[in-house]
Amino acid sequence: MAPEWTESDRHTLFLAARLIQQVWDDDTSPASRVTSATEARHLLRECGLTPMARRSLQWEIDRGEAATERTNQRRASSRPRSVVSDPRIAAAK
Length: 93
Fold this sequence. Notes:
With about 90 residues, the chain is an all-alpha fold. It has five helices and no strands. The protein has helices spanning about 10-25, 30-45, 50-55, 65-80, 85-90.
């Protein structure tokens, strides 16, 4: 999922990691564990780290070189083009 994230997602991922750490920490009270687990679950879903979140974001997990190649092709095709044609102009001709 990391290729899908941007720098702005970093804070959310660190927060999710901290909450998960609190869930497994023996010094955390049971009530705080429940609260941390609930919030971590929401953050993990927001970051596309659950199966249902990936499905709703239409992300697929691929493996190997073919996956890297497809990711690079997708990113290259989504880059803004320097010249964008206006379909209204082409239709008027």
